[in-house]
Design goal:
mainly beta; elongated; four-stranded antiparallel sheet; single chain; 134 residues
């Protein structure tokens, strides 16, 4: 990664490699408290020898107060990409925290054409406002 950006977080499970880059979008003061918006770009690559389809996502979002929010649902950005060996899928999404820094981790439920199911983990990655002193 570059000197001023966050390093890429990389996780691999059964040949499915997940790389995450984050960036701080902005913060604003609202009547009920501040909101800090973060974007994350995730690249999922199949470096294994068998196809796998991303069917579900499951996130745990932790803020600086230790509060944890759980998010799960089908696919990512309305898509359930089928990745053949050597293929990758990239998307950008975002989340809102009430604190200037936090973290996310989770997993993707992957299906193999042969009926096997496994969880491709996404190791914790940091969400941080670079202007905020932790």
């Amino acid at each position: 990664g570059s000197a001023n950006g966050h390093p890429v977080t990389r996780s691999e499970t059964e040949g499915i490699c997940v790389e995450v880059r984050t960036r701080f979008v902005g913060g604003r003061a609202l009547p009920d408290g501040a909101r800090f918006v973060f974007a994350y770009t995730i690249r999922i690559s199949n470096q294994g020898s068998a196809p796998a389809q991303l069917c579900r996502r499951h996130w745990f979002i932790t803020d600086a107060h230790g509060g944890v929010r759980e998010v799960e649902g089908e696919g990512v950005v309305g898509s359930q990409p089928l990745l053949h060996p050597g293929e990758s899928f990239e998307y950008t999404s975002g989340c809102v925290l009430e604190t200037p820094h936090g973290a996310m981790h989770g997993s993707y439920t992957m299906f193999r054409p042969n009926g096997a199911v496994f969880e491709a983990r996404v190791d914790p990655f940091v969400l941080a406002d670079p202007q905020a002193i932790a």
